Amino acid sequence: MGGIGSGTWCRWNTKTTTEECKRIDIRYMKRNGLLAPGRLGSLSWTSNGEPLGDIRYRYSRNCLELNYRYRVNGGDWQPVSQSVPITTTPCNYGNERHWFHCPRCNYRCAILYSGSSHFLCRKCYKLPYNSQMQTDLDRMASQLDGLGERIFEHHEYGDGWPKKKGMHQKTFERLLSRYENLEFGLDQLTMARFGLKLSSM
Fold it and tell me: Residue 102, Cα to own-chain centre: how many angstroms?
Protein backbone atom coordinates (compact mmCIF):
# COMPACT_ATOMS: atom_id res chain seq x y z
CA MET A 1 0.00 0.00 0.00
CA GLY A 2 1.19 3.51 -0.68
CA GLY A 3 1.85 6.07 2.01
CA ILE A 4 0.68 9.58 2.66
CA GLY A 5 3.92 11.18 1.58
CA SER A 6 7.50 11.92 2.38
CA GLY A 7 6.80 14.52 5.04
CA THR A 8 7.71 17.48 2.83
CA TRP A 9 4.41 18.16 1.06
CA CYS A 10 3.11 20.36 3.89
CA ARG A 11 5.54 23.18 4.70
CA TRP A 12 5.44 24.30 8.31
CA ASN A 13 6.13 28.00 8.11
CA THR A 14 4.10 31.20 8.30
CA LYS A 15 2.80 30.69 4.75
CA THR A 16 1.33 27.22 5.21
CA THR A 17 -2.44 27.16 4.81
CA THR A 18 -5.14 24.52 5.03
CA GLU A 19 -5.12 24.13 1.26
CA GLU A 20 -1.56 22.81 1.25
CA CYS A 21 -2.41 19.81 3.45
CA LYS A 22 -4.18 16.55 2.76
CA ARG A 23 -7.52 16.37 4.49
CA ILE A 24 -10.34 14.03 5.43
CA ASP A 25 -13.79 15.64 5.39
CA ILE A 26 -16.46 13.72 7.31
CA ARG A 27 -19.25 15.63 5.55
CA TYR A 28 -18.10 14.33 2.17
CA MET A 29 -17.85 10.79 3.51
CA LYS A 30 -21.38 11.01 4.91
CA ARG A 31 -22.87 12.37 1.70
CA ASN A 32 -21.27 9.63 -0.35
CA GLY A 33 -22.48 6.77 1.82
CA LEU A 34 -19.06 5.94 3.28
CA LEU A 35 -20.12 5.94 6.93
CA ALA A 36 -21.93 2.61 7.10
CA PRO A 37 -20.89 0.57 10.17
CA GLY A 38 -18.19 -1.95 9.29
CA ARG A 39 -17.38 -0.18 6.04
CA LEU A 40 -13.90 -0.74 4.62
CA GLY A 41 -12.43 1.58 2.04
CA SER A 42 -9.52 3.66 0.87
CA LEU A 43 -8.82 7.35 0.31
CA SER A 44 -6.22 8.62 -2.12
CA TRP A 45 -4.96 12.01 -3.24
CA THR A 46 -3.62 13.15 -6.59
CA SER A 47 -2.16 16.34 -8.05
CA ASN A 48 -2.23 16.94 -11.80
CA GLY A 49 -2.92 13.25 -12.27
CA GLU A 50 0.05 12.17 -10.14
CA PRO A 51 -0.60 10.14 -6.96
CA LEU A 52 0.22 11.88 -3.68
CA GLY A 53 -0.56 9.01 -1.32
CA ASP A 54 -3.35 6.85 0.00
CA ILE A 55 -4.67 5.38 3.22
CA ARG A 56 -7.12 2.69 4.21
CA TYR A 57 -9.97 3.08 6.65
CA ARG A 58 -12.57 1.12 8.56
CA TYR A 59 -15.66 2.80 9.96
CA SER A 60 -17.62 1.78 13.03
CA ARG A 61 -20.42 3.69 14.72
CA ASN A 62 -18.12 5.66 16.99
CA CYS A 63 -14.71 5.48 15.33
CA LEU A 64 -12.79 5.80 12.07
CA GLU A 65 -9.73 3.52 11.99
CA LEU A 66 -6.97 4.74 9.66
CA ASN A 67 -4.05 2.61 8.46
CA TYR A 68 -1.25 3.92 6.25
CA ARG A 69 2.50 4.36 5.96
CA TYR A 70 4.47 7.53 6.59
CA ARG A 71 8.06 8.64 6.14
CA VAL A 72 10.06 11.81 6.68
CA ASN A 73 12.44 13.25 4.08
CA GLY A 74 12.95 10.02 2.17
CA GLY A 75 13.53 7.86 5.25
CA ASP A 76 12.12 4.42 5.88
CA TRP A 77 8.36 3.94 5.63
CA GLN A 78 6.73 3.48 9.03
CA PRO A 79 3.26 1.91 9.56
CA VAL A 80 0.72 4.17 11.28
CA SER A 81 -2.59 3.14 12.83
CA GLN A 82 -4.81 5.92 14.07
CA SER A 83 -8.23 5.84 15.74
CA VAL A 84 -10.41 8.92 15.30
CA PRO A 85 -13.47 9.19 17.61
CA ILE A 86 -16.77 10.12 15.93
CA THR A 87 -19.92 11.53 17.49
CA THR A 88 -23.23 12.78 16.07
CA THR A 89 -25.58 15.67 16.77
CA PRO A 90 -29.18 16.01 15.54
CA CYS A 91 -29.81 18.26 12.53
CA ASN A 92 -32.50 20.93 12.56
CA TYR A 93 -34.68 19.04 10.09
CA GLY A 94 -34.07 15.44 11.09
CA ASN A 95 -31.21 13.04 10.43
CA GLU A 96 -27.90 13.65 12.17
CA ARG A 97 -24.56 15.34 11.62
CA HIS A 98 -21.30 13.44 12.09
CA TRP A 99 -18.23 14.95 13.73
CA PHE A 100 -14.61 13.96 14.18
CA HIS A 101 -12.99 14.49 17.56
CA CYS A 102 -9.37 15.45 17.12
CA PRO A 103 -7.20 12.58 18.44
CA ARG A 104 -4.87 15.09 20.11
CA CYS A 105 -7.08 17.78 21.66
CA ASN A 106 -10.57 16.18 21.35
CA TYR A 107 -11.85 19.28 19.53
CA ARG A 108 -15.01 18.59 17.54
CA CYS A 109 -14.51 19.28 13.84
CA ALA A 110 -15.57 18.24 10.35
CA ILE A 111 -12.11 18.13 8.76
CA LEU A 112 -8.82 16.55 9.80
CA TYR A 113 -5.48 17.49 8.24
CA SER A 114 -2.28 15.49 7.90
CA GLY A 115 0.63 17.77 8.66
CA SER A 116 2.98 15.09 9.95
CA SER A 117 2.42 11.46 10.84
CA HIS A 118 -1.19 11.85 12.05
CA PHE A 119 -4.47 13.46 11.02
CA LEU A 120 -5.39 16.22 13.47
CA CYS A 121 -7.59 19.31 13.57
CA ARG A 122 -6.67 22.67 12.09
CA LYS A 123 -6.07 24.15 15.56
CA CYS A 124 -3.48 21.54 16.51
CA TYR A 125 -1.51 22.18 13.32
CA LYS A 126 -2.14 25.95 13.59
CA LEU A 127 -3.26 26.16 9.97
CA PRO A 128 -4.58 29.63 9.07
CA TYR A 129 -6.69 30.97 6.25
CA ASN A 130 -4.09 33.45 5.01
CA SER A 131 -5.99 36.40 3.50
CA GLN A 132 -3.03 37.39 1.30
CA MET A 133 -2.83 33.88 -0.15
CA GLN A 134 -6.52 33.05 -0.23
CA THR A 135 -7.71 30.90 -3.10
CA ASP A 136 -11.27 30.27 -4.21
CA LEU A 137 -11.34 27.32 -1.79
CA ASP A 138 -10.29 29.43 1.18
CA ARG A 139 -12.65 32.24 0.23
CA MET A 140 -15.58 29.84 0.09
CA ALA A 141 -14.58 28.35 3.45
CA SER A 142 -14.39 31.86 4.92
CA GLN A 143 -17.86 32.67 3.56
CA LEU A 144 -19.21 29.48 5.09
CA ASP A 145 -17.64 30.30 8.45
CA GLY A 146 -19.02 33.84 8.39
CA LEU A 147 -22.54 32.74 7.52
CA GLY A 148 -22.41 29.99 10.12
CA GLU A 149 -21.43 32.49 12.82
CA ARG A 150 -24.41 34.62 11.77
CA ILE A 151 -27.15 31.99 11.85
CA PHE A 152 -26.04 29.38 14.41
CA GLU A 153 -25.86 29.68 18.18
CA HIS A 154 -22.73 27.54 18.14
CA HIS A 155 -20.41 27.33 15.17
CA GLU A 156 -17.12 25.54 14.55
CA TYR A 157 -15.15 25.45 11.28
CA GLY A 158 -18.03 25.49 8.84
CA ASP A 159 -20.55 23.53 10.91
CA GLY A 160 -23.19 24.79 13.29
CA TRP A 161 -26.17 24.11 15.55
CA PRO A 162 -28.88 25.19 16.52
CA LYS A 163 -30.66 28.33 15.18
CA LYS A 164 -29.37 31.54 16.73
CA LYS A 165 -31.67 32.88 19.43
CA GLY A 166 -33.89 35.74 18.29
CA MET A 167 -33.59 34.99 14.58
CA HIS A 168 -36.90 34.64 12.73
CA GLN A 169 -37.54 31.14 11.45
CA LYS A 170 -38.09 32.28 7.85
CA THR A 171 -34.84 34.23 7.89
CA PHE A 172 -33.04 31.24 9.30
CA GLU A 173 -34.47 28.88 6.68
CA ARG A 174 -33.46 31.24 3.86
CA LEU A 175 -29.92 31.62 5.15
CA LEU A 176 -29.67 27.92 5.99
CA SER A 177 -30.44 27.09 2.36
CA ARG A 178 -27.63 29.40 1.29
CA TYR A 179 -25.35 27.84 3.92
CA GLU A 180 -26.06 24.31 2.68
CA ASN A 181 -25.42 25.36 -0.93
CA LEU A 182 -22.07 26.85 0.10
CA GLU A 183 -21.25 23.71 2.05
CA PHE A 184 -22.01 21.50 -0.95
CA GLY A 185 -20.01 23.77 -3.24
CA LEU A 186 -17.05 23.64 -0.86
CA ASP A 187 -17.17 19.84 -0.87
CA GLN A 188 -17.17 19.73 -4.66
CA LEU A 189 -14.38 22.29 -4.98
CA THR A 190 -12.29 20.42 -2.40
CA MET A 191 -12.64 17.18 -4.33
CA ALA A 192 -11.75 18.84 -7.63
CA ARG A 193 -8.79 20.73 -6.20
CA PHE A 194 -7.19 17.85 -4.34
CA GLY A 195 -8.15 15.07 -6.73
CA LEU A 196 -9.45 13.10 -3.74
CA LYS A 197 -10.77 9.68 -4.62
CA LEU A 198 -12.69 7.37 -2.30
CA SER A 199 -13.40 3.70 -2.79
CA SER A 200 -15.01 0.92 -0.78
CA MET A 201 -13.88 -2.67 -0.31
Answer: 11
Q: Which residues contact 131 (CB under 8 A, 6 or more apart)?
A: none
What letter would DSSP give residue 164? Answer: P
Buried b / exposed e along 139-168 (16+ C-beta atoms within 10 A): ebbebbbebbeebbeebbbbbbeebbeeee
Instruction: Return d(Cα 146, Cα 122) in angstroms, integer.
Output: 17
Tens of pLDDT, residues 17-68: 666 778 899 988 888 888 888 889 988 877 667 777 789 999 987 899 999 9
**Which pTM does this prediction carry?**
0.60
Closest CA to 51 of 196, 179, 154, 163: 196
| Cα 159 to Cα 4, 37, 48, 94, 140, distances in angstroms | 27, 23, 30, 16, 13
Provide the residue ranges of all domains of the chain, joining segments of one domain with +: 18-200
Contact 94, 31 (CB under 8 A): no
